[in-house]
Amino acid sequence: MATPGNIVVGTHVWVEDPVLAWIDGEVLLIKGGHDIHVRVTNGKTVVANVSKVFPKDTEAPPGGVDDMTRLSYLHEPGVLQNLAARYELNEIYTYTGNILIAVNPFQRLPHLYDTHMMGQYKGAGLGELSPHVFAVADVAYWAMINEGKSNSILVSGESGAGKTETTKMLMRYLAYLGGRSGVEGRTVEQQVLESNPVLEAFGNAKTVRNNNSSRFGKFVEIQFDKSGRISGAAIRTYLLERSRVCQINTPERNYHCFYLICAAPQEVKDKYKLTSPQSFHYLNQSDCYELDGVDDSLEYLATIRAMDIVGINESEQEAIFRVVAAILHLGNIDFAKGEEIDSSVIKNDKSRFHLKTAAELLMCDAQGLEDALIKRVMVTPEEIITRTLDPASAVVSRDGFAKTLYSRLFDWLVEKINVSIGQDPNSKSLIGVLDIYGFESFKCNSFEQFCINFTNEKLQQHFNQHVFKMEQEEYTKEEINWSYIEFIDNQDVLDLIEKKPGGIIALLDEACMFPRSTHETFAQKLYQTFKNNKRFVKPKLSRTDFTIVHYAGEVKYQADHFIDKNKDYVVAEHQDLLSPSKCPFVAGLFPPLPEETSKSSKFSSIGSRFKLQLQSLMETLSSTEPHYIRCVKPNNVLKPSIFENMNVIQQLRCGGVLEAIRISCAGYPTRKTFYEFLHRFSVLSPEVLEGNSDDKAACQKILDKLGLKGYQIGKTKVFLRAGQMAELDTRRAEVLGRAARTIQRQIRTHITRKEFLRLRTAVILLQSCWRANLACKLYVNMRREAAAVKIQKNLRKFIARKSYKRLRTSAVVLQTGLRAMSARNEFRFRNQTKNAIIIQAKWRSHRDYSYYKKLKKATITYQCAWRQRLARRELRKLKMASRETGALKEAKDKLEKRVEELTWRLQLEKRLRIDLEEAKTQEIAKLQDVLHDMQQQVMEANSMVIKEREASRKAIEEAPPIIKETHVLVQDVEKISSLIAEVEHLKALLASEKQVNDASKKASVEAQGRNDELMKKLVDANTKVDQLQDSAQRMEEKLSNLESENQVLRQQALSISPTGRSLSARQRTMIIPRTSENGSMFNGETKLALDMTPAFVNSKEPESEEKPQKFLNEKQQEYQDLLIKCISGDLGFSSGKPIAACLIYKCLLQWRSFEVERTTIFDRIIQTISSSVEGQDNNEILCYWLSNCSTLLLLLQRTLKASGSASLTPQRRRTPSAALFGRMSQGIRASPQIVGLPFSNGRLIGGLNDLRQVEAKYPALLFKQQLTAFLEKIYGMIRDNLKKEISPLLGLCIQAPKATRGSLVKGSRLQANAEAQQALIAHWQSIVKSLATYLKTLKTNYVPPFLVRKVFIQIFSFINVQLFNSLLLRRECCSFSNGEYVKAGLAELEHWCYAATEEYAGSAWEELKHIRQAVGFLVIHQKPKKALKELRNDLCPVLSIQQLYRISTMYWDDKYGTHSVSSEVISSMRVLMTEDSDNSVSSSFLLDDDSSIPFTVDDISKSMEQIDTSDVDPPPLIREHSGFSFLLQRAE
């Protein structure tokens, strides 16, 4: 990466270090062009060759970059430093192109994997948000959906790097994207995830590097249907480490299941005859029996539950653990030498006990098991020979039997899980997740490590090809030439291992097939075959070891057990023993073999079989689009916050990450966009930027001017060869160095001049002080002279003022006496005049009022008598006309009106009489009050006279003899005499008033008598009315043809909806007086509906009722149809009130629909609203119906009541014995307060009608609930439409657009800069425009301000959540300039809130508190000086510690180059976050969007004012219809 020309003195570079791998320093000296002396950060000076030195990017962000292809210098130390910087900030994921590197944090980070985080990454492009495992899964899923091609995700890494957990996260996210319910209530993805505990129990074990290491490879195929939903899955496993069953070393453990069964409940252990793990040979080879923080007894129960979940029943579970226990007992069977040569027997009774126990558990014959372990049957053409094994061979036979049994058990579990999950044979697409072991190199490497590293070589070749392909795609996309780029391949290593016939695996199979082959002969064969292969090395002083040079480094293998571990065959004796087992499960593990192989041992090579499996896997991966996740273990102590450079760099090499970097370096390792290139290197040629708007041409000119060769310029990027970036940085450093020296020269000049000015100022100040001292002395003398003159002046002024004040006091005393006397005279005159006027006014009022009452009484009496006479005449005419059938109805109507008017007049007379008595009583009380007041005035006048006499006497005695008051005394005496005369006159007036009062009382008594006579006449009139009613009932038999019309009239009068035949069950004579009991007022012109049918019911009545009832139903249906037709259109608004809502309410109230048990009108109204708003994107219509629904709901809320409140319940039933006019008169008497109120058109109009409440039945209450639901639905549709409209703009508003090249030239084109600034906030202005449009629509449709506020509060909360979450997920947004951009946009929103006023915007601005404080943090200066307390309490009080930590660590200053908060503050934040994690406090730093309905019906009712529906004009469609005449009534 570096050349001698690029490295100069003062350059910051990376050099190799034996402890830290790489360490940075500064170049001190360059000798000979190749040896470079570097002072590293620890203070030492090292000498390194120029080829081992790499330049350091001093301008790299302190928190690293999320994609390492964006590094200016793509080399090992740069990659390592970037990963370390991000790991320190808990940023465990980093991209390298399309490859995701995941560093194990060794701690819980739940905020990274919750459901909300999944929602953020759903549909986001790779690189759009911060690196995450969800992003890789999302890209794979959508690539499968959009392109129809299967995808695969390859997760690799060494043991403990977090492969299994990463795979779980991938499965969870894919389940989130494509999950659906399974047949038995569990989803396919849940079954796959729930199978992990079972596979981990039987396939995972503790190793040196990991407490839960997967000792098998796993490839999970998740199958999807055409709609992208998970339809099936399958799990494939590779190379289970069988040797671990029989052989382990300290501090490792065997497979978990062995320890789990030893920790099972005691009854289970007794059943299987188990004790502690220390007593079993297969477990006590290691001193480790327990894991830190793991309770094996609880894990046993968890494994049982997991088996239940994946469909393993109890009998199968019992059989599985019997096999596991049998394997433990097999391991305790020891052998001793037998009597014969090369024979063996069971060693002792303890071994025989374990033998019998194993036979019992496997349900086979104990003797047969013994023979299978120590005997072999050899089949020859002539005979069958049985031979015994020596003790060593018997142990090998025992271990082989245990390994085969466990391997078959594990394969059965995998197959059972696959059957339980189910596969989709019709699936055309799948996503495969490969959890495979990483490259391994231990002190002792055997056949397992050989196969693992062979797998990694295969995967590395696939990985290299994929990376090279990605490079080619990048170059093709940018349209640059890439034909000369070389590709590094590892095919020679693969040929060494798998090539036929000369590969290692082929030679191993050949050795296994020869009985006399040993590991030494196999090793010698390898030495001879590959002695000239550069990838194969023979170690010195070893006869069985060999070394292979892998892509990740050299690995030394021990071939001692290669032959034994490669053999995979079932001994015929073992097969014959377990095939007939009485346990079906055990017998199923060893199905019968074909007859020709039943008596011999068929050899099968594990290496060849594994190669075939691997070939199948590679074919599957080749048919899919691969995605790579490289897991890295940062330290070997498995603790958080520890980053071991040497360990990580080795894993990067083994994982192929550095190989991918080498592929990139072979081409163009440095890629810069035109903006980034110009931003960094425009200082090398500033004149290029002037007057040229083409960024590509400007980059070309800069590179041509510098004379670089071999670079490429694509469509959007500049591609630089290795070393060219360093050369550019060197020249840039020279330019900046010259500029720095110029700045230093100017600064020194400035400092010198500043010192000179300071000295000159000091001299001038000294001179000024001396002159000031002389001036002070002169000032003292002048002050003395001035003081003397002032004293003389003040003394003369004091003497003159004293003389003047004495003279002025005398004059004032004289004037005061004269003015007081004049004021008293004026006061007495005005008081007398006022009292006289009051007395005159009272007397005239009393006289006129008395005359008015007499005249009114006489008039009413005359009117009543005359109308009574007219009524009698009319009655006689009606009796005569009743003989004529055709005129009956007209006579009846006139009679009813006359009788009603007469009754009302009589009641009015009674009321007037009562009012007259009350008026008299009040008049007497007023006169008594006047008399009492007069007496009080007389007493006060007397007391005043006495007081004035006393005052006059005292004044005479105290006055000097010179002053004469004789004339004043005479006047006082005259006034007293006049007052006494006035008092006498008042007494006379009082006496006359008493006489008038007595006369009034007599007149009242006479009026009472006349009223009694009128009451008698009223009773007589009632009697005559009853007689007339009886006559009308008799006549009703002759009017059957008019009965239906009478029913319609009664229906309109009573406003009751028809409910089938229930109407006929009502009383035949009915009138509903609107009194205070039913919430309305009675009036004199109420239409009466009289049912003239006889009181008795005969058998023919049903026939006469059917036709009227049918007619009524048809009429009611006609009215409802007309109402529905009317409200289906846009009726608009009247005085800000929605006409449709008011019309519906008034009609339902008039028809009494709220009080019936059954009606269809509510359903029809709801259906009309539903059809109007369903699937609507027209906000005008939605706002129109939102206004109508809220208004109608408010009216219903204040009108309907579910039960109780009898005083407000409408009176719907009357006693049948009450006569028509008797009930009418009772209704009038029950509501005397209505007298004198205005009547109009048959209904009393007034504000009290709005207060009416009715007891609602179930249909009405259900209608109210449905209306509430539609209100919430329409509100949500409007809110969601606005969210949908502004969501695309929010993605553009969170990050400032890239500045044009012109902005790099300072001080030029001010107008263009202003236009650019205006264009920067165009997206924000689009949001403001959308908000203004919605506000205008809501206001035009008179939506209640309460709902408008709620809409915009939730919208601003949505804006806050989206912007804040995007800010925390995208590091490029957490910059200083981007903070300024977002702050300017927020100012636009604040201006809109101010313009919208608080009535409509409410507290919407406060909902942006998170993004406002986050942006405030980005744009503040001097962040390193801020303390944590100041940040949390003053700057960002709303942000949680996780959010504050996130934004602090992601911040970078792209404008001034400043740093974020200090490291001490970061450390304090980490401590607080750890405490929160320990306290189970949610550590998620993302916000959730609240999409609930933020109000209730009560909130709407409280927030809206009372609505008066009386002044709403009905629409023209129903205005002329007689059935809706009640809508035309107006309030006066």
TrEMBL record:
Residues 614-636 are annotated as: Actin-binding. The keyword S-adenosyl-L-methionine does not apply. Residues 878-944, 1011-1052 form a coiled coil. Residues 63-733 form the Myosin motor domain. ATP binds at residues 157-164. It holds the Pfam family Myosin_head. SMART domains: DIL, IQ, MYSc. Belongs to the TRAFAC class myosin-kinesin ATPase superfamily. Myosin family. Plant myosin class XI subfamily. PANTHER family: MYOSIN (PTHR13140), MYOSIN-17 (PTHR13140:SF772). This is Uncharacterized protein. The lineage of its organism: Eukaryota, Viridiplantae, Streptophyta, Embryophyta, Tracheophyta.
